User: Fold this.
Amino acid sequence: MNRRELLRVTAATILAGGLASDSEASELESALKPPKKGPIVVAVVVGDGATVIDFAGPWEVFQDASVPGNDSPFSLAMVSDNTAPLQASNGMIVTPRFTYDSLSEQPNVIVIGAQGEHTPKKIDWIKKASEKADLVMSVCTGAFLLAKTGLLDGLTATTHHDFYDRFEKQFPAIHLVRGPRYVEHKKLATAGGLTSGFELALRVVQRYFGNAIASQTAYYMEYNRSPQRPNSV
Assistant:
């Protein structure tokens, strides 16, 4: 039995056991609706200096999510200014498959991790694509890039704890929240550093398909969900 079969069987067992109903996913203000046809398209924005776990963590969550009758409800696309190989953190070489011009599908979810490039084209694309997206989420200091779009103005947001003061000073129109692993709104969400991206991505799965599916995805990944950051040392 491959992992997709394992996920399908386990998820079906959970739903059959009566755990499919959960208040968070059924609340109109938090639930997200999958497309009537086709997968949920997730565009993962990268650039030179991209922090690997910031994009790889959510990528793993969305690729591992499975629902009864659909082993791959999410379709993932890595997008950047061009498709030339770029250097992510600590020398990892990543080759985006799409540019902002060549990605023909409207993304349902946009993932923005920490990265060194905040190009005008990238900022403009995020702003335009966000208009029809279900959710735009940042991870770690990807919040700085998202903030540059102006989409967070007047809202609450968070980022990596080492960058609280810098973010607060640079973006006074945004109310920085210190402490939780993520802060969410109907169409925008920001996660803290590193593994907080796992947490927020699982929350996105929950908003689409309910807590049972999100919890099963976390279990498959051997990841313990927690809305709180570890205590400082």
The first helix runs from residue 3 to 16. Confidence is low (pLDDT under 50) at residues 9-28.
